[in-house]
Design goal:
By secondary structure, this protein is of the alpha/beta class. The chain folds into two domains: 4-147, translation initiation factor eif-2b, domain 1 (Four Helix Bundle (Hemerythrin (Met), subunit A), Up-down Bundle); 160-356, Rossmann fold, CATH 3.40.50.10470. Helix content is 42%, strand content 17%. The protein is built from eleven helices and 16 strands. It has helices at residues 31-39, 46-66, 73-88, 95-112, 122-156, 183-192, 209-220, 233-238, 264-273, 305-308, 349-356, and strands at 4-7, 10-14, 25-28, 164-168, 196-202, 225-228, 244-247, 251-253, 258-261, 278-281, 287-288, 309-310, 313-314, 327-330, 337-340, 343-345. The strands form four sheets. Strands 6-5-4-7-10-15-16 form a seven-stranded mixed sheet, with helices on both faces. α3 (73-88) packs antiparallel against α4. The protein is globular and about 75 Å long. It binds 5-S-methyl-1-O-phosphono-5-thio-D-ribulose (MRU).
Length: 357
């Protein structure tokens, strides 16, 4: 099973909204299908969203190339950049989406500089599309390699410890990246090293990424996992069931504040009270060094029906007012370390993040 695959000019996406009941792939030949898949969380998790967006960009570039209404290179370029902005708006918090689009835009602008408008041919645009495709493939390859590096750096934190019981929130696994996952990559490595006893997976209301995706993914790999509803996290910590917490991230600021799936902040507060180390695993593409404080991070607000319904069943009055932020921000004071592909960052994060650059 794979999360996404670029094959013969199409992007195949595993529809994660149907897991764990059905394994169905969507064959995207149009960037709009990818945009819809990102918006609807068919593909989700910050790194996977970035990779999917890079391929969507390639599909959009191909469309611009074959659009008779865009005869000149300048018109094709303008249209492509405008479609890319539509893609960018699909999910506002995951910075990897912006990062991937910026990277593709920068390449596009580099490729189109110095091309004489008189010497343009269809081949000129085709070679641009080819270069964009190579860049998207590279982004996917890099993402895969990053997860391996993070796994090893993260597992090293626990050298000498055995029978570890790790709690995680949401899904920061293979389903959320092009590789083995961020938080779950570290967990996989600990399992490989014989140090892991069990994972405790928060269910992750309202869209259940923990119960639908994390448990599914770990069970596929025969890694022992216990599912708990989000409001059982405190119980598990109070009863000494948890040795450490590892989660992923959607955006990390220059001072180390971390936006991640709604509920992460609560877990971090609980961890502090119970003196359990709380770690975040994320690649460099998740850092947003233009922001200092977590309260500058835009938080995606989602459809109230996600809360009014549990799956397909309505569990609240149809017109009740609902608060549905998709993410919350964990302040850096609650974080013991940020696991990156370049090693583990420790407080003072302002300094360690600056040094990592
Ligand atoms: O809304 P989602 O499912 O895209 O949220 C995902 C998360 O919050 C993950 O923890 C984060 O993106 C990191 S994935 C490696």
């Amino acid at each position: 099973m794979y999360t996404l695959r670029w094959i013969k000019g199409q992007l195949e996406l595993l529809d994660q909204t149907l897991l764990p009941v059905k394994t169905t792939y969507i064959h995207c030949t149009d960037w709009r299908q990818v945009a819809e898949a990102i918006k609807m969380l068919r593909v989700r998790g910050a790194p996977a969203i970035g990779v999917a967006a890079a391929y969507a960009y390639v599909l959009a570039a191909k469309e611009a190339g074959s659009d008779a209404k865009l005869p000149s290179l300048a018109e094709k370029q303008k249209q492509l950049v405008s479609w890319a902005e539509e893609l960018r708006s699909t999910r506002p918090t995951a910075i990897n989406l912006m990062w991937a689009i910026d990277r593709m835009n920068q390449l596009l602008s580099k490729l189109t500089t110095n091309i004489d408008s008189k010497t343009q041919t269809t081949d000129t645009w085709n070679s641009i599309v080819q270069a964009l495709e190579e860049e998207a493939v590279q982004i996917e390859k890099e993402d895969k390699a990053l997860t391996e590096a993070m796994a090893s750096a993260g597992a090293d934190i626990f050298k000498g410890q055995q029978h570890l019981r790790i709690m995680t929130h949401c899904n920061a696994g293979a389903l959320a990246t092009a590789g083995i996952g961020t938080a779950l990559g570290v967990i996989r490595e600990l399992y490989k090293r014989g140090q892991l006893e069990r994972v405790y997976a928060d269910e992750t209301r309202p869209l259940l990424q923990g119960s639908r995706l994390t448990t599914f993914e770990l069970m596929e790999d025969k890694i022992p996992v216990t599912l708990q509803t989000d409001n059982m996290a405190a119980y598990a910590m109070q009863h000494g069931l948890i040795d450490a917490i590892i989660v992923g991230a959607d955006r990390i600021t220059a001072q180390g504040d971390v936006a991640n799936k709604i509920g992460t902040y609560g877990v971090a507060v609980l961890a502090k009270y119970h003196k359990i180390p709380f770690y975040v695993a994320a690649p460099y593409s998740t850092f947003d060094l233009t922001l200092t404080s977590g309260n500058q991070i835009p938080i995606e607000m989602r459809d109230p029906d996600e809360v009014r319904y549990f799956g397909n069943r309505r569990t609240a009055p149809a017109d009740v007012d609902v608060l549905n932020p998709a993410f919350d921000v964990t302040p850096h004071e609650l974080i013991a370390g940020i696991i990156t592909e370049r090693g583990v960052l420790r407080p003072d994060f302002k300094e360690s993040i600056q040094r990592m650059k």
